[in-house]
Amino acid sequence: MSDSLDSRYGRTSQRPPLPRWVWVALAAAGIVLAIFFGIWVQRDQFDAAPEFKDTGHQILNADQVAISFEVVKAPDSTAVCAVKALNDAGAPVGWKEITIPASSATAGGTQVMEVRESFRTTETANAVTVDNCWTRR
Predict the structure, then answer these.
(1) Is the pTM above the cut of 0.70?
(2) 58 falls in which pLDDT band (50, 70, 90)?
(3) What secondary structure, in 3-state letters, does 17-74 show?
(4) d(CA 105, CA 5)
(5) What is the pLDDT of residues 117-132, one digit of tens each?
(6) Which of 21, 43, 69, 92 has its Cβ near the most Cβ atoms within 10 Å?
(7) Tens digits of per-residue pLDDT, 61-90?
(8) Would you state the pLDDT for residue 63?
């Protein structure tokens, strides 16, 4: 009965399997694409983000604070650091973005800058800290 069905409807011929080199080429292409994707995703990490370290803060009065911190960055890049003041409950009561300009120093290496800045708060703060720093493009 199977022969009569085959003769009536036709039987598709079996396709020969792909050669081994095709599978190897596909696997190699997949690996190369995965590597390039990883580089693309991590590209921003190669542009090293500025590092920062709080060195002190001062509560000047009920509505003003001062912070001092160090920033380590590439000399030819402009960094922006966000600083915040917190109240007793840990809620932000002040915020400021501070721009640290590129210097005319020779490109390459790193540059350590000491930054001191004061800013206003909405109520009395008990802590002041650097929230984050990033490179401005």
Answers:
(1) no
(2) very high
(3) CCCHHHHHHHHHHHHHHHHHHHHHHHHHHHCCCCEEEEEEEEEEECCEEEEEEEEEEC
(4) 85
(5) 999 999 999 999 999 9
(6) 69
(7) 999 999 999 999 888 889 999 999 999 999
(8) 93
The CA distance from 87 to 30, in Å, is 52
Topology of the domain covering 51-136: Immunoglobulin-like (2.60.40)
Closest CA to 112 of 70, 79, 49, 81: 70
Residues contacting residue 83 through CB under 8 Å, at least 6 positions apart:
67, 69, 95, 96, 97, 98, 117, 119, 128, 129, 130, 131
Domain spans of the chain, in order of start: 14-46, 51-136
Please report where in the chains the tokens 């600083």 appear, as a residue: 83
The encoded tokens of residue 13 equal 């011929």
For residue 121, which phi and psi values (nearest 5 degrees)? Answer: -130, 165
Residue 60: per-residue pLDDT: 94
